[in-house]
Design brief:
- Helix 4 links the parallel strand 2 and strand 3.
- This protein is α/β, with parallel strands linked by helices and about 240 residues long.
- The longest helix is centred in the middle third of the chain and has 29 residues.
- The protein has seven helices and four strands; from the N terminus they run αβααβαβααβα.
- The chain is globular, with a radius of gyration of 19 Å.
Length: about 240
């Protein structure tokens, strides 16, 4: 925070577990006291991947021509992991969006010609037809979040609050790289399969969110942007 809190605005760090409804309620109340005139942007970016028993990075991938091997491998999937992935990756975004809706609607009137928005960070895993390296419940939870976002966009449509999605591909994060340094930067060493031939950079994500959050994005709602380097182009996907 000390590194990036140097611009004209102010970063106020607030800790909350968005998998718990009561903590979301406290978070909404806290932000309401800080921003009584409303807010213009909510980014639901929290996500986890708990497919430890089936991920190919920690376990060898099964022989995909052997039905028994496929069944044996993916039967190891833990029901608790499914619950945790769906709770954070889908349900958390739901209650965050519902809870902050009045503040977002209030913020629409602050800047003439501008409308507040929710940006839900899903994943291109929601559209890929493979198991995303064994993260099968993660991909399913992100696909659920995509459809939930469309439902929220329709639900909010008469309030002037827009809902859009970003479905990123592979970026170096603590989730994909397994950790980060003191500067909170992660390094990705594994190969990436996409048309760009590289993992995403910070500027790729920054440009996407700035577009949706700026005036140029006010005509967009219920849309999905794919900063994935063309992974959904070269891999089997439903877009």
């Amino acid at each position: 925070m000390e590194l990036y809190n140097t611009g004209p605005g102010k970063i106020i760090p607030i800790t909350a577990d968005i998998s718990k409804k009561d903590e979301i309620k406290k978070l909404v109340h806290r932000v309401s006291t800080e921003e009584p005139n409303g807010i213009q942007l909510l980014v639901n970016n929290a996500g986890i991947a708990r497919d430890y028993a089936t991920e190919f990075a920690g376990n060898r991938a099964p022989d995909f021509q052997d039905p028994g091997a496929i069944s044996e491998h993916f039967w190891k999937s833990d029901p608790v992991s499914w619950q945790q992935n769906f709770t954070t990756n889908c349900m958390g975004g739901y209650f965050m969006s519902i809870g902050f809706l009045p503040l977002l609607a209030r913020g629409c009137d602050v800047v003439p010609g501008y409308s507040s928005s929710v940006v839900n960070v899903t994943s291109n895993s929601a559209f890929l037809k493979n198991t995303t390296r064994g993260h099968i419940s993660y991909g399913a939870s992100k696909a659920a979040f995509v459809h939930l976002s469309r439902m929220l966009a329709h639900l909010f449509s008469q309030t002037k609050v827009r809902v859009n999605m970003i479905a990123p591909g592979t970026f170096p994060t603590e989730m994909t790289a397994g950790g980060s340094g003191p500067d909170q930067k992660s390094k990705l060493t594994r190969a990436v399969t996409n048309a760009a031939g590289r993992a995403g950079h910070e500027i790729d994500m920054a440009a996407t969110i700035l577009f949706l959050a700026g005036r140029g994005g006010t005509f967009y709602t219920a849309q999905t942007l794919f900063p994935d380097g063309g992974e959904t182009l070269v891999e089997a996907a439903s877009v």
